[in-house]
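Design review, sub-item: ligand-bound model
Attendees: FS, YL, KQ
YL presented the inputs for the glutathione complex:
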Amino acid sequence: MSQMDTGDEIEVFYWPTPNGFKVTIMLEELAVPYRISPIDITAGDQYSDEYTDVSPNNRIPAIRDYCPPDGRKVATVFESGAILLYLAEKYGKFLPEDFALRSACLQWLFWQAGGLGPMGGQAHHFRLYAREKIDYAIDRYTTECNRLYGVMERRLQEREFLADEYSIADVACLPWIYRHERQGQKLEDFPRLQRWYQTLMSRQPVIKGLAVASDLRDDSAFTSDRGREVLFGRDSDPEET
Ligand SMILES: N[C@@H](CCC(=O)N[C@@H](CS)C(=O)NCC(=O)O)C(=O)O
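KQ shared the predicted structure:
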């Protein structure tokens, strides 16, 4: 990992996956300078001692801010939802000022972090990555994703965005809906969600954020023996890999 000592720049510890996309989309939306430090999660980079200092949960994304608003020399933030909130507060954008809308935005941000993300992740795992195809697990997470898509569909019935105005709640959800095919979902079944998706996908910063370092990603690495061992085989006190 590289060290930076330049001004108002954000270092993003990143791999091109849905949780990583949230941060690159947000930084593109904010149009602030940032640089990518790749963390190859299929090779085990997330478990290095240096990265563990930045991200104690050994997951991407994380950021280092070399110009935090509170005067510290450097600040680190892990957890994609917390990163979105940090950036929204720092730059004063994409977090509604109105009390009720801010509360709505945070509800949908937490809903994404506690529901759509983890359930979508399990759907990806059992549908694409698991060595064994287990019908029960595939059905369980495909059905739960379908239910969650229905929750978004209802929310978007009377509003263009999750918290009325475009916000970090939308930025958090988009990369997971972007992967709808991997979750066994058809957007045509959710017309309001589809309209929301098309609106977001027509934004240049979203397109740019989704494309950042896309050349790094190799989907076959997720199902290689080494990738599976690194990603799905770690317990709390693993042997050195
Ligand atoms: N709750 C975390 C989840 C992060 C997460 O699971 N990231 C995945 C990539 S999308 C990862 O780092 N996987 C590596 C691994 O499982 O070892 C967040 O929202 O930041």
